[in-house]
């Protein structure tokens, strides 16, 4: 009789452990899936941030190019004005 009670207790203990183990396994799977989802969301956010940064850099480069072109045009106009002034001054000096 003791052996039967001991065997029954051992069987019940093993079944309880198996049920607990299954619940732990399910919980671990859910945790892993959640972590994978979080990692995918973070990767998407990082990709979006990189795209936004690249667009901002492109815009800044275009603005800098336009500013440099404007400065070059202004410098060329100033040089032409200075040359015309110098030419006029030289003509006046030669006429006197």
Characterization of the model:
With 96 residues, this protein is mainly α. It is built from 1 helix and no strands. The longest helix is centred in the middle third of the chain and has 94 residues, at 2-95. The model has no long low-confidence stretch (mean pLDDT 80).
From the helix content, strand content and strand pairing, which structural class follows?
mainly alpha
Mean pLDDT: 80
CA radius of gyration is: 41 Å
Query: What proportion strand?
Result: under 5%
Query: What is the number of helical segments per DSSP (H or I, 4+ residues)?
Result: 1
Uncertain stretches of 5 or more adjacent residues: none
Shape: rod-shaped
Main sheet: strands, sense, barrel? none
* Count of distinct strands: 0
Determine the oligomeric state from the structure: single chain
Cα distance, first to last residue? 141 Å
What string, H for helix and E for strand, traces the elements in order?
A: H
> Helix amount, in percent?
over 70%
In short:
With about 100 residues, the protein is mostly helical. The protein has one helix spanning about 1-95.
Considering the chains and any ligands shown, give keywords for the structure.
96 residues, mainly alpha, 98% helix
Sequence-ordered SSE layout with sheet pairings:
Elements: H1 2-95
């Amino acid at each position: 009789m003791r052996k039967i009670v001991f065997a029954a207790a051992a069987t019940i203990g093993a079944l309880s452990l198996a049920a607990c183990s299954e619940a732990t396994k399910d919980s671990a799977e859910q945790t892993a899936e959640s972590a994978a989802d979080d990692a995918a969301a973070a990767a998407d956010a990082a990709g979006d941030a990189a795209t936004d940064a690249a667009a901002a850099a492109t815009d800044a480069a275009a603005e800098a190019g336009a500013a440099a072109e404007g400065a070059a045009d202004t410098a060329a106009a100033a040089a032409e004005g200075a040359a015309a002034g110098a030419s006029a001054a030289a003509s006046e000096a030669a006429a006197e």
